[in-house]
Amino acid sequence: MEKYKLGKVIGIGAYGIVHRGLNLETNQIVAIKRFYTFDCKNGVPYTTIQEISMLIEMYHINIVKLLDVISNTKNEWYIIFEYLDLDLEKYMVTYLKDSMEKHTIKYIMHQILSGVMYCHKHRIMHRDLTPDKLLIDLNASVVKIADFGMARAFDFPLRAYSPEVVTTWYRAPEILLGSPVYTTAVDVWSVGCIFAKMLTRQNLFAGASKNEHLRKIFSIMGTPNERTWPGVTSLPYYPAGLPEYYPENLEEFFPDLEPAGVDLLSEMLCMNPARRISAHRALQHAYFKKKKRKEKKEKKMMILDPIEEEKEEEDDDDP
Amino acid sequence: MEYNPYDPLLQEDEIRPFRKLFTVESSFMACEGYFQNERTISFRRYAVSYIEENSKCEDFDAFVPYLAMNYFDRFISMHKLPEVISSNKEENAILLVICCLTIAWKMRIRSFNVELFLTERNLQFNRNQVKEMELHILNSLRWRMRSLTPICFVGYFIPLLRLPRSSQQLNRRPV
Questions:
Q1: A68 CB near a chain B CB, below 8 Å?
Q2: Label partner for A200 (CA 20 to 30 A): which of A4, A306, B89, B125?
């Protein structure tokens, strides 16, 4: 750790304490996550070795770069990341003030999905995507996802340590229902919830308890049954005695969202994980296709201006 | 994700992945002059035979000894032997070789069990010593354990050989 200077605490999460820090050799400002972890009866756990060695090789503009790992015999772990001081949670409060920033939302969604797709391609799940894990670099107009793969690398159980610290509102129904296995689809659900939050600045599925949360999801997306989601009724936490809700029309919740956006959102919030849209397919969705030329010039975007203007030209001919 | 030498990390849209592979490959090599170094050459010879001997098992994986040697070469060519067992230099050296091997196993196989590995081979190390040495190796190699080696290029060269179609099918897990 001689290489780094530990600064003030910038966050406390399920993983441990996050400090601001300084790389004394390069003067780069970094985030230092401090962990105390796991029993090592099998030496260093294979998940930690496989996942960290994977993360250290990953390079994607929309993924927060893992720069260094330092561990000592006292079982203290320091993971050094790129540092950005703004996250989507704060950004929404400060910059996304009204629904005018449709472009910005689309642009942010595209970046989130690009980062998610890159990780999923390498079979890395996030499992706990929330707006405060999405860091924003205002100067470069870039969104970066933090903590990809960390849940598995450090074998953190997917439960809230306390409701104040970890929010479960972005968590996929299969996790809430206690499904023993889950796939990369859990991240797509979370991105869907984040999409909804950006549009209305409210959590679509906020509930005080897990059951309340599930009831909220069912009341909007419809109560899942064996026909819509084979196997769902035998999941450990499938609640008994809930009314059979019919799916609501999402359009009514998001009156300002274009139809293609509503369609994408409903595909991301598909209850059955096997039928939920993948990040890869979501990026090809009509929502991200350029529509009319005039729209591009319509309004100067607030701070987060697309940098890929040229690339978007290619899509101009699309319907 | 288990280490798969045929699946190096590449960007989706990388048009010429090989340029990137070539630059990355050098960071998974032992430092220059290592193979002429008299001091390490006998230690290396010992490591090769030890790793060969101890990677034998029921479901033998050819990449495990290969990976373990890659870790050994990179480690010993650039770092001093850490003193996990200070009382016995020889034991300490053996532990280093073993831990190169345990890390390689863990990179490839989920069910690898250190305890079982040690008892089956009648090795007197405890799991704390193994963990400590593993950490030394992992930290020293900066956790870059997904080694990019010549095997990663095989898929590229096979089609160039213009072999009949049937023999182009690579056996992805050679035994």
A1: yes
A2: A306
